[in-house]
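Researcher: Structure prediction, please.
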Amino acid sequence: MSEKKTDLVITDERIINQIYLIREEKVMLDSDLAELFGVETKQLKRQANRNIQRFPKNFMFELTEDEAESLRCQIGTSKIGRGGARYLPYVFTEHGVLMLANVLKSERAIHMSVRIIEVFVKMRELALTHKEILVKLQQIENKVTKHDEELEMLFKAVKNLLTEPKKKRVKIGYKVPSGKKNTGAKK
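Model: Predicted structure follows.
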């Protein structure tokens, strides 16, 4: 019964906050999964190692020291050898989470893996929706840019018409030959 109450506290938001982007993959840490599945991290890792053939590199991988250090800085965990984990953490992709539930074989692990997979699917759907919105915005921006260029050309043409330099006007009429004065009187 206490297991059901614990499940109610685990929200989608909490699961989303435990998903990280590492090596261009959305993954979850072994320690976070162990907590969600209700097992110790060492038990989770032991089961994964015992069933290593079920976890190819696109299901699970061990972080490098640089990746682990970077992640520690982001989430504020202790350093290796200072009361924290002694080994580099494993991370599991969406498929790895599902496989973990199969090797752990507990009701809670199965239930939580289904919830986690649902969150991964929601995130993917949101990403696709955002991508569609971004494509539409790009199309609108392209149209606006094209219209801006056309309006700019139009404004330049109108400005040129309004500010066209005045040409020297040619006088019309009789020209007095040079050397003779025109007195204006008739004889």
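Model: DSSP finds seven helices and four strands in the chain.
Researcher: Thanks, that helps.
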